[in-house]
Structure formats: C-alpha cells, structure tokens
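Sample intake sheet
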Amino acid sequence: MGEIIPVNAESSKETKKKFSAANALDLNLSSLSEMGPDSNGAVWLKISLDQVYVLEKIVWLTNQGTPRLTWTWSNSDFSCDSLGIGCASFSLIISIESGAAPANLNSISERRYGDIIKFQRTDGVDKIFVFEIAIIGKRGEIII
C-alpha cells in the first residue's frame, strides 16, 4: 500500500482562480480548493488517477494535516469517519473511466477499484473547501 499521486482534479465550479481544484492535489497544506455549484446546482470535486487502482483509503486533510474525513475500505464498501463536518454531507463515488476495467469485477468489488474519485456535497450547502486529498491504494492484480 502506498499513496497514489493523482494526475488531475476538476470541480463543479471554481469560485476564484487562486482556489483551483488542482490545489487539492499539490501536496501543499497552505493552498485551498473551493468549489461552488455547477449549472445543475451540484457541488463536486473529481480526481483522476493514471490507471485503475485497488483503493484502500481516501483522506480529506485539514490545513494542519489532520484527517477531516476518512473513507476506509471494509468488507464490501467504504466506511467514513469524520472530524467536525459529518460524513453524511458528502457522497464518495468511485468509478472507472479509462476503459481499462477488469472483466471479472462484481458489484461489490467494483466499488473498490477505480481511476476516478468524486466527492459530491449532499447536504444542500453550496460550497466545498479542500486543502489536500490523500489516496492510499495499490496497483496490481485484481483479486476478488
């Protein structure tokens, strides 16, 4: 297991250029990403990886480097722990966009494999603030 370095981030709508979605991936706790609603009113942050990974943990860090939200794979789904803002305020969506999906994934295991990680606000608040996202997982064989 190791930290996966994402290749890209995009968001529903950047509130200001200096608060770019890419700031969530720059390994700098002093920079901030801020997202507002898209034309449909949805607020989200989408992170792209360079290939499909077996995802184990996704951590949303504060500007002090402490976990704000942590999603950890357990048995058949990701469970969430939070500091402050609740897990119920966000949905975590893992998907495979690259077309490189292994053919032998079942409905449970496919939620663990992906090259796209998307956070979407679900509580009606129209902003997301992110200092840094850390993604833990591994490359390798798909074991089901």
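Comment: The first strand starts at residue 2 and ends at 4. The chain has a mean pLDDT of 86.
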